[in-house]
Every structure is written in structure tokens, then in C-alpha cells.
């Protein structure tokens, strides 16, 4: 959804480690329950990256980008 909106990748990493750092730099550090060992980072508000994104669009996108797949929104 974000890539369609932006017309470019949201997390354009050059390798797996760079990709993970880009994800964490936008979404913030994941909960400790995920078991990921990544630097502590504060989330970047998606609306600062996508200026015309509505509150509803922001909410949907954040639900789609949850680290825990069980917490992600589903089509159902």
C-alpha cells in the first residue's frame, strides 16, 4: 500500500541488515517479544513520509505493518 502511494519502495534496503535497519527506522524498535536484536529507534510518523495520507489510511497502513503477523490486519 505504501509503495503504491509513494511510487517507490518504503524500505529500500541493499541487503538484509540494511533492510532491517530501514524498517526499524520507520516503524521503531519492535517489542522485545519478537526476539529481534536491533538498535533502539523511535518510529517515524508515516504521515511525515506521505503528506496527503488520511488518518484512516495511516491507521490501515500501521495495522498492515505490525511486526507480529498475528496482530496484522487481515482481509477478513
Beta content: under 5%
Structural class of the secondary elements?
mainly alpha
What is the 3D form? globular
* Count of individual domains: 1
Summarize the amount of helix as a percent range.
40-55%
Largest sheet: none
**How many helices does DSSP assign?**
4
As residue ranges, the low-confidence spans are: none
Can you give the mean pLDDT? 90
Radius of gyration: 13 Å
The strand count comes to 0
Give helix and strand order, one letter per element, not per position: HHHH
- How far is the N terminus from the C terminus? 17 Å
Q: How is this structure best described in words?
A:
This protein is mainly α and about 80 residues long. It has one domain. The longest helix has 12 residues.
Write the layout of secondary structure elements.
Blueprint: H1 2-6, H2 16-27, H3 46-49, H4 55-64
Task: Provide tags for this entry.
4 helices; mainly alpha; 76 residues; single chain
Gist?
The chain is an all-alpha fold.
Amino acid at each position: 500500500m505504501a509503495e503504491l502511494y509513494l511510487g517507490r519502495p518504503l524500505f529500500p534496503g541493499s541487503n538484509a541488515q540494511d533492510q532491517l535497519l530501514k524498517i526499524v527506522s520507520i516503524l521503531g524498535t519492535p517489542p522485545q517479544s519478537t526476539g529481534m536484536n536491533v538498535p533502539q529507534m523511535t518510529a517515524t510518523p508515516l504521515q511525515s513520509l506521505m503528506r496527503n495520507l488520511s488518518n484512516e489510511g495511516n491507521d490501515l497502513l500501521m495495522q498492515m505493518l505490525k511486526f507480529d503477523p498475528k496482530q496484522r490486519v487481515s482481509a477478513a
